[in-house]
């Protein structure tokens, strides 16, 4: 047993703490509930994009589509320009070949005309020239002889 005598006058009374209220427990429970609600809100909000985020995603998608269309249009324009250049080159080559063929025909025609003209001149000259085998007629270019 103990040596403590509750009736001893030398003993000072031990102050007893005031009765505690449950305010601390209620405050702690409220903080915990607010924390749980905040965590739940953050978790569900991360899975549900806001209207601004949806608009940004739609704008990004539209920009990508527009960029792809612009790239396709640029590629189509490049192909069209290349086709036009090839067509122009082919047309120029055809015109050059036609001009060369026309020059060749003109030269051949001029050569035929010159040959025909030379042949005609030769025929005319032989028709008007005296016959060199005949001894009776003097050449027309020789001066007449005197007796």
Whole-number mean pLDDT: 79
Individual helix count: 2
Radius of gyration: 62 Å
User: Secondary-structure element sequence?
Assistant: HH
Can you give a write-up of this model?
By secondary structure, this protein is mostly helical. It has a domain at 90-119. Helices cover 70% and strands 0% of the residues. It is built from two helices and no strands. It is rod-shaped, with a radius of gyration of 62 Å. The chain starts with 22 loop residues before the first helix and ends in a 19-residue tail after the last helix. The model has no long low-confidence stretch (mean pLDDT 79).
Please summarize what this structure is.
This protein is an all-alpha fold. The chain has a domain at 90-119.
Give the arrangement of secondary structure elements:
Blueprint (H helix, E strand, L loop, with lengths): L22 H25 L3 H78 L19
List keywords for this structure.
mainly alpha, 147 residues, rod-shaped
């Amino acid at each position: 047993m103990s040596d403590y005598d509750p009736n001893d006058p030398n003993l000072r009374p031990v102050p007893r703490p005031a009765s505690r209220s449950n305010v601390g427990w209620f405050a702690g429970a409220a903080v915990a509930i607010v924390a749980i609600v905040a965590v739940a809100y953050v978790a569900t909000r991360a899975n549900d994009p806001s209207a601004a985020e949806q608009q940004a995603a739609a704008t990004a998608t539209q920009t990508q589509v527009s960029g792809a269309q612009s790239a396709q249009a640029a590629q189509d324009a490049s192909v069209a320009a290349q086709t036009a250049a090839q067509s122009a080159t082919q047309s120029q080559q055809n015109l050059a070949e036609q001009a060369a063929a026309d020059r060749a025909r003109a030269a051949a025609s001029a050569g035929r005309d010159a040959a025909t003209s030379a042949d005609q001149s030769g025929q005319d000259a032989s028709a008007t020239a005296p016959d060199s085998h005949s001894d009776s007629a003097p050449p027309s270019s020789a001066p007449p002889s005197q007796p």
